Amino acid sequence: MTSKPTSFLGEYFYLGMALVMSSLVVWGFSRTVNANLFHANPPRPLLLWAHGAAFSSWMIFFIVQSSLVRAHKVSVHRLLGWFGAGLASGMTLLGFTIAIVMARFDTFVLHQKGADAFLSIPFNDMIVFGTCIALAIYWRKKAEYHRRLIFIATCELMDAALGRFDYLFNHNLFYPGLDLLIVAGMMRDWLVDGRISKVYIYALPVMVALQSLSIYAWRINPAWWQGVTRAILGL
Questions:
Q1: pLDDT in tens, 174-202
Q2: Among 33, 48, 82, 152, whose Cα sits 20 to 30 Å from the Cα of 92?
């Protein structure tokens, strides 16, 4: 027989994680948003406001969609899903664009060093997020694949919030932090279903490999990556 804790995980895991991740976003960005956006000096590009609005909207969307599934409002969930597909597509394009805009701003306006090399982090995030969303749309009628891909895509965005904590940022721990969220999903599967979904089994190793490459490109900034970023930024 299914135990009460296991039954609770089966019914409320995704909604609970949506609330946890949204709280993490609020907590992390509350540490920097005032100095880096609201009262930034010099003022940040206007596109950064659109970026913040779009990604905040995604977190609200994730909570709403998880709530609709929990309330068995599947038809509404599917209808709103097309809005989410459009939002996610815009977010992916916006993510790449704002990464370049801010790298140029940090380099030429704030005269910061290493902003070009850091492009590997947001680029990786958008590649993983966009790929997971595309696969989730493709497998939208396979709920077991779809929900996990949306969950993984949202987890990938959490490095931005975790990176607001200096210790995690300075020690490259923001990626392991988001990976732990995915491991929580794997544990949910093991406890509730008695097995871990192949979505996690295939996705997590690829993500860790891409994360490692991104950290290497950022911290080491090898010649090949310098050539890429110089071409992108026009240095």
A1: 999 999 999 999 999 999 999 999 999 99
A2: 33
User: 57 with 94: CB under 8 angstroms?
Assistant: no
pLDDT digits (tens, 9 = 90+) for 139-159: 999 999 999 999 999 999 999
Judge if pTM exceeds 0.85.
Answer: yes
